[in-house]
Design brief:
Helix content: under 10%
Radius of gyration: 13 Å
Number of helices: 0
Largest sheet: 7 strands, antiparallel
């Protein structure tokens, strides 16, 4: 068993991660960041849950860029091929569930 206080987690670099579980090739990782990621497309589905802080999620849909500000407790589900980028507003901690080895 593991108990993790997500608000206390920090990393030495932006998007540093704490590996929580690998369930038959699906990883669960807690990330700390204070910097944007990069535009990317996952090769599988992704669940992105804000555990602490705020994150502006930009995504492209129907040729247009859209943005949503996510607060603690909010969840973003990226389908296969969904182009997106996360921009933390200050520091944020994010739980990411995705296929092992995904971007």
């Amino acid at each position: 068993m593991k108990f993790i206080e997500s608000r206390a987690f920090t990393a030495a670099r932006a998007w540093g991660a704490l590996d929580i579980a690998n369930m038959n090739g699906i990883t669960v990782r807690l990330h700390w960041t204070d910097r944007p990621y990069e535009w990317h497309v996952n090769d599988g589905e992704e669940v992105f849950a804000v555990m602490d802080g705020q994150v502006r999620m930009d995504y492209r849909e129907d040729g247009q860029t859209r943005s949503v500000v996510m607060n603690t407790g909010d969840i973003f589900f990226a389908t296969v091929g969904a182009e997106h980028v996360a921009h933390p507003i200050g520091q944020a901690r994010v739980l990411v569930i995705e296929k092992e080895g995904s971007i």
